[in-house]
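Before surveying the methods themselves, it helps to consider a single example record, giving the amino acid sequence and backbone structure tokens:
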Amino acid sequence: TPLWWAVEKGHKAIVKLLLDTGKVDADCEDSIGRTLLSRAAEKGHEAIIKLLLNANKVDADSKDSYGRTPLWWAVEKGHEATVKLLLDTDKVDTDSKGSYGRTPLWWAARSGHEAVVKLLLNTGKVDADSKGSGRTPVSCAAGNGHEAIVKLLLNTGKVDADLKDSKFGRTPLSWAARNGHEAIVKLL
């Protein structure tokens, strides 16, 4: 739709113009159930997210057919300000599970988005030791060489640093050693 394209391309003035008509569906979905808010979150279009949220006609926690929410998209792409904006609504499930049980924290830890990990941990509403694809956030961070994130997760006191993943039976230490992350091996 014209609104979809305006959101996609980040044209705030056009999004506002279309929303102000009252004749557009601000919560429409694409073929996989992804909403305009999810698309704006994926792109990091903060101003458009504010417009959509202020329209009070969108579900801030809608899930697409893979269980991905607007928060999930913002986290996966590392859009710190967008994540904060969505968390500040108090209308999102910070620990929602998408496909394979992957949570926003899992994705942030895996991808190395340290600031986003901090934001999610600071909510106090995430399971720092949940398994997605059989691995915990600390396992993903350790295996991918994200030392600062490993420290953040360990400092919560809520992770089991010796927990084996369910697919290969590896611990975070095993993943760090396998991938040559010496500093993380020392830390663990």
